[in-house]
Amino acid sequence: EITERRRIEDSREWLKHYSGKTGFTAAAIRMGLGDGGRTLVSKFANRKLEVDPTRIVLAVEALRAQIEGPEGITKYIGFRETRCVEMVWKHADAARDGHYMGLLVAPPGFGKTEALRAYESRREDDGKPEVAYIYCRITTHLSSLVNEVAETMHLVAPGKTREAAQLHKDIVRTLRSCSRFLIFDEADLLNERCLTFIRNLHDECGIGCLVVGRPDLLKTIDLGARWSTANSDGKDRPILDGPLAPFVNRVVSAILPGLGDDEAIEITEDVLKCKLTDEAATKLLFYVGPNFKVLSRLIGTLRKIKSKAGRAIDERMIEEAWRRTQGPVTRR
After folding, report:
1. DSSP code, position 311
2. Which distant-in-sequence residues (6+ apart) come within 8 Å of 54 by Cβ?
3. CA distances from 221 to 57, 139, 225 (A)
């Protein structure tokens, strides 16, 4: 039986976001609940479920593992409003309210996607431009991105596609009449033309946008925008040139700090309900750094070790937990 409030709420927020795009029936089928599971999904997402939520929580976590990978689940920690999350929300609010283009960059594991999805959920129906979250993939190219934005705005049916140029015009027309705030997550997977399309939407409609990705995003931008010189009145003047020069001229960027040392220790002690020795805290910070995802995996392993070794967490337990977690996800 699952009774941990944070874990239940984390599953509820994720399911609400997912079913908002697919519908309750499709979500129920994906989770193996069948057509009759629509009522269960709807009641859980809308806080009307009066029975034990264990079944639906486990189904949500299983579906989330299929979509995001097991490391994307925060079942050991739950969603935490860290300083990094607050910074994401602060920049998102500024871009949304000021109708400008924001750029956020951080390595994998810093909790960008979790923060963005929580932002979309918590800014729902607040009287400002609706938040539209677009998740970019390795297969995303210009035509698919245009269709993805259109599908998010309900201009095309899920799974259907239309010609990109005409669809671009329809998106602009819709955004001019009903503004939205567009968030592009995993934007390091986008090419120059995709980034230019985002800039086009900003220029044509005056909407706010937030482009979020890993440091590779900066490499793409650097390759598409370069400084050169132009002679004017007998003087050489520096100018920004290249296909992404207009994008660079409009964007306001920031680097996310990741998890703070004090936050990592506080979260660990809160989840495990015990104190770390000074040596254990030092070792934990050495292994985890600012990476939220690594901390989550480490805590999941520490829970098993602690149950056998008593209440205190010492340096040897941290080392053993780190050894066991070595695999696909490591500190980068």
Report:
1. S
2. 1, 2
3. 40, 19, 6
Q: Distance between CA 322 and CA 237 in Å, rounded?
A: 54
In the chain, the N- to C-terminal Cα span, in Å, equals 36
pTM exceeding the 0.85 threshold for the entire prediction: no
Phi-psi label, residue 2: left if phi above 0, alpha if psi -120 to 50, beta otherwise:
beta
* Per-residue pLDDT tens over the stretch 176-208: 999 999 999 999 999 999 999 999 999 999 999
Edge-first strand listing for the sheet containing 101-105: 130-135, 180-185, 209-213, 101-105, 251-255
Residues 6+ apart with CB under 8 A from 281: 265
Buried b or exposed e, range 288-317, using 16+ CB within 10 angstroms: bbbbbbbbbbbbbbbeebbeeeeeebebeb
Beta-carbon contacts of 307 under 8 Å, excluding residues fewer than 6 positions away, are: none
Among 75, 83, 78, which Cα is nearest to 106's?
Answer: 83
Degrees (nearest 5) of the Cα angle 147, 256, 217? 45
Map residue 40 onto helix, strand or coil.
helix
Distance CA 25, CA 229 (A): 58
Alpha-carbon distances, residue 248 vs 21, 107, 169, 187 (angstroms): 31, 21, 24, 15
**Tokens coding 134:** 């677009």
pLDDT at 301 (0 to 100): 87
Q: How many CA atoms lie within 13 A of 261 on its CB side?
A: 7
Tell me if residue 148 falls in helix, strand or coil.
helix
Residue 12 one-letter amino acid? R
Q: Are 239 and 131 in contact (CB under 8 A)?
A: no
